[in-house]
Design a protein that fits this description.
CATH class of the largest domain: Mainly Alpha
Biased composition (Acidic residues): 339-363
Radius of gyration: 23 Å
CATH architecture of the largest domain: Orthogonal Bundle
Helix content: 40-55%
Domain RIO kinase: 66-297
Protein name: Serine/threonine-protein kinase RIO2
Strand order of the largest sheet: 4-5-6-8-7
Oligomer: single chain
Number of helices: 12
Catalytic activity: L-seryl-[protein] + ATP = O-phospho-L-seryl-[protein] + ADP + H(+); L-threonyl-[protein] + ATP = O-phospho-L-threonyl-[protein] + ADP + H(+)
Order of helices and strands: HEHHEEHEEEHHEEEHEEEEHHHHH
Distance between the termini: 28 Å
Biased composition (Basic and acidic residues): 364-383
CATH superfamily of the largest domain: Transferase(Phosphotransferase) domain 1
CATH topology of the largest domain: Transferase(Phosphotransferase), domain 1
Strand content: 5-15%
Bound molecules: adenosine-5'-triphosphate
Largest sheet: 5 strands, antiparallel
């Protein structure tokens, strides 16, 4: 089954409504029973809803999953992407989608534009993309977790990034301007600069080095440790050589148990990179943890702004427990065939198995395909269509 972005323009208001119903149902059902989809969508006549479901399944926005207890559907990443895009489109944050400019381990980055043609960056968080690839250990981990865990965790990651970016921007840190956030996505300004890792020579390595060390200290003096301060997350303007920090997935408070370790790692990372790439070593060994003087409380502010300590803990736990498992097991378990029945864990055995596995594989394929980049050159058309389509 190939995902066809052209088909999106044929999605009706009712299709959108049903897609939203599947999303709502996934809040407490790993596999949303068809009857529940009918109920939530509030559309009269089950056959109409079934038609919508099959339209959505055809373009990979939902995937059929059959388990021992009931038939149902799950929202795919593709489905969640379309819902987020539809929201951005309605809010006029995004009008068209252009090229993909980055594929991170856990995110996809696209250049997008609004109606005026102003270019921006859309970052789609995709936590669980790797763990989702049928690793048994991860399935076990996710089995008893919040349903639609990948969706929930990706949303948390987007919420976190948006909350931090907002606070940092408001406090004059060099970060992209956060423009909008919906579900697992954020929209920010496009920084026309090169990642440090792509830069082979600098007019003055010592100047940039000093700026970066100063930034690490400034973060800390405001109560924050970046935690992943490296050549991938720093863009450098060609003319001014001013740095912009684009990504802060590990950012924590200076009161965090590992704050000192993260701080020292950030410093070392820059030191090592400058030595290797630019053959530059600074005269002094600092900055040191003991140099940090707290003058601000951005860590406290960010919590108040909507990304709670509880959410931070949940995300941290996920990152700690799932991410290392994926790295270790990805290759070995790739044929496990993993995620269709985690809802009940009982569908393994007897007659159900053969049929269930077939369905599982099918839905798995659908999910895999839905995860393929789905917005490229056709993106503008897609968004044109989205702009004219209302969910209700
Ligand atoms: N606002 C932006 N402006 C310009 N380019 C950007 C912007 N945000 C991201 N990019 C580009 O996309 C790439 C990936 O972005 P980012 O580091 O945020 O993703 P990621 O998924 O966290 O990556 P990884 O996990 O691999 O470090 C960057 O290296 C950069 O080239």
């Amino acid at each position: 089954m190939k995902l066809d972005t052209h088909a999106i323009r044929y999605l009706t208001g009712e299709d959108w409504r049903v897609l939203t119903a599947v999303e709502m149902g996934s809040k407490n059902h790993e596999v949303v029973p068809t009857t529940l989809i009918v109920q939530i969508s509030g559309l009269r006549g089950g056959s109409g809803v079934n038609k919508c479901i099959s339209n959505l399944a055809k373009v990979g926005l939902v995937a059929r999953v059959k388990n021992a207890k009931y038939d149902g559907y799950r929202l795919t990443y593709g489905g969640l992407d379309y819902l987020a895009l539809n929201t951005f489109s309605k809010r006029k944050s995004v009008y068209s989608v252009g090229n993909q400019i980055g594929v991170g381990k856990e995110s996809d980055i696209y250049v997008v534009a609004d109606e005026t043609g102003a270019r921006k960056v859309l970052k789609i968080h995709r936590l669980g993309r790797i763990s989702f690839r049928t690793v048994k250990a991860n399935r076990d981990y996710l089995r008893n977790r919040h349903s639609g865990s990948w969706m929930y965790m990706s949303r948390l990651a987007a919420l976190k990034e948006y909350a931090f970016m907002k606070i940092l921007h408001e406090n004059n840190f060099p970060v992209p301007v956060p423009l909008d956030q919906a579900r697992h996505c954020i929209v920010m300004t496009l920084i026309e600069a090169f990642p440090l890792r792509q830069i082979s020579t600098l007019t003055s390595p010592s100047t940039l080095y000093a700026k970066l060390m100063e930034l690490i200290l400034r973060f800390a003096s405001q109560g924050l440790i970046h935690g992943d301060f490296n050549e991938f997350n720093i863009l450098v303007h060609e003319d001014t050589q001013e740095p912009v920090i684009i990504d802060f997935p590990q950012m924590v408070s200076v009161d965090h148990a590992n704050a000192k370790e993260y701080f020292e790692r950030d410093v070392k990372c820059i030191k090592d990179f400058f030595k290797k790439r630019f053959r530059y070593t600074a005269d002094d060994d600092g900055p040191f943890w003991g140099d940090v003087r707290r003058v601000g409380k951005l860590d406290v502010l960010v919590e108040a702004s909507g990304f709670s300590k509880k959410q931070a803990k949940e995300l941290e736990k996920y990152m700690k427990e799932v991410a290392p498992l994926t790295d270790d097991n990805e290759a070995g378990d790739a044929t496990e065939g993993g995620e269709g029945t985690e809802d009940d864990g009982e569908g393994e055995g007897g007659e159900e198995e053969e049929e269930g596995d077939g369905e599982e594989e099918e839905s798995e394929r659908a999910i895999e395909e839905a995860r393929e980049p789905m917005i490229g050159e056709d993106g503008k058309e897609l968004l044109d269509a989205l702009g004219n389509t209302r969910i209700s």
